[in-house]
């Protein structure tokens, strides 16, 4: 029973929610800028901070529970044959079937052993959200990271504002212990969020995924390219526009062929 609860992601999501609101409660209960503004009737910043935290939790559940782009069935009958007729066979790798779910894999898809599905434009499986990051939720994952980072940085500033001086270290720790623990936890998560967001924005700017970047030497459609070459790269501005503004399933086989044709 407990194993099924953990696998369902219930435990991870519960820990995330509890940790988020415990930290928020500590910031409100201690003598921080947040508490002082609330007591003085200046409610704008306390309400704004609470709404930002609430938004981060809502985005967390959105990304965590959202379909990342699972390949649940083969394309409509005849579509694969039409696609292979449209794309010359010599320069482009043939479409392959997944060895686990036995479905036809679109280009840039990968089977996730944890989710038991192939995922379109697979980036990685994130244990913290207990879900894959793929074609359908990657954009929301970036938005979530951005909002979460803003909430964490604000929480760090609020925590710092609550520290008070004391005569001895022992007395100082007894007065500021909870805030110090909160600052450490928030600081670690802030560092992780900064690194994740920076890495993902870089990969988005070159139209690559974490999986492709880390395993390109083992991916059939990237083996013939050098380390600095990418058949899906359309330039920074176009890549960012396509990622954040284009809400559709991309036929990466066509993009790949055009990129390979220009490469040749």
UniProtKB/TrEMBL annotation:
Signal peptide per UniProt: none
Top-level division of the source organism's lineage: Eukaryota
Example of a GO biological process term: protein targeting to membrane
Domain notes: The DHHC domain is required for palmitoyltransferase activity.
The keyword Transmembrane helix appears for this protein: yes
A GO term for molecular function: protein-cysteine S-palmitoyltransferase activity
Topological type in the membrane: Multi-pass membrane protein
Occurrences of domain Palmitoyltransferase DHHC (ranges): 96-215
Entry's Gene Ontology cellular component terms: endoplasmic reticulum; Golgi apparatus
Catalytic reactions of this protein: L-cysteinyl-[protein] + hexadecanoyl-CoA = S-hexadecanoyl-L-cysteinyl-[protein] + CoA
Pfam families reported for this sequence: DHHC
Subcellular location field: Endomembrane system
UniProt-listed Enzyme Commission number(s): 2.3.1.225
Transmembrane segments: 10-29, 49-72, 141-160, 180-204
Protein's name in the database: Palmitoyltransferase
């Amino acid at each position: 029973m407990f194993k099924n609860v953990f696998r369902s992601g219930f435990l991870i999501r519960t820990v995330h929610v509890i940790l988020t609101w415990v930290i928020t409660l500590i910031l409100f209960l201690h003598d921080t800028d947040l508490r002082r503004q609330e007591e003085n009737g200046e409610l704008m910043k306390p309400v704004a901070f609470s709404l930002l935290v609430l938004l981060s939790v809502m985005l967390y559940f959105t990304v965590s529970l959202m379909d990342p782009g699972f390949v649940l069935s083969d394309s409509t009958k005849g579509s694969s044959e039409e696609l292979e007729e449209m794309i010359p066979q010599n320069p482009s790798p043939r479409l392959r079937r997944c060895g686990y779910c036995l479905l036809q894999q679109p280009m840039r898809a990968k089977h996730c052993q944890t989710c038991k599905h192939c995922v379109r434009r697979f980036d990685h499986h994130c244990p913290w959200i207990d879900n894959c990051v793929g074609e359908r939720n990657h954009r929301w994952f970036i938005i979530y990271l951005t909002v979460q980072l803003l909430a964490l940085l604000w929480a760090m500033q609020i925590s710092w504002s609550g520290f008070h001086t004391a005569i001895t270290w022992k007395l100082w720790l007894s007065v500021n212990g909870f805030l110090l623990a909160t600052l450490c936890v928030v600081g670690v998560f802030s560092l992780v969020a900064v690194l994740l967001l920076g890495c993902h924005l870089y990969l988005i700017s070159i139209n690559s995924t974490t999986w492709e970047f880390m395993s390109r030497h083992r991916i059939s459609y990237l083996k013939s390219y050098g380390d600095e070459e990418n058949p899906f790269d359309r330039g920074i501005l176009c890549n960012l526009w396509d990622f954040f503004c284009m809400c559709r399933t991309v036929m990466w086989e066509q993009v790949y062929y055009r990129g390979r044709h220009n490469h040749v």
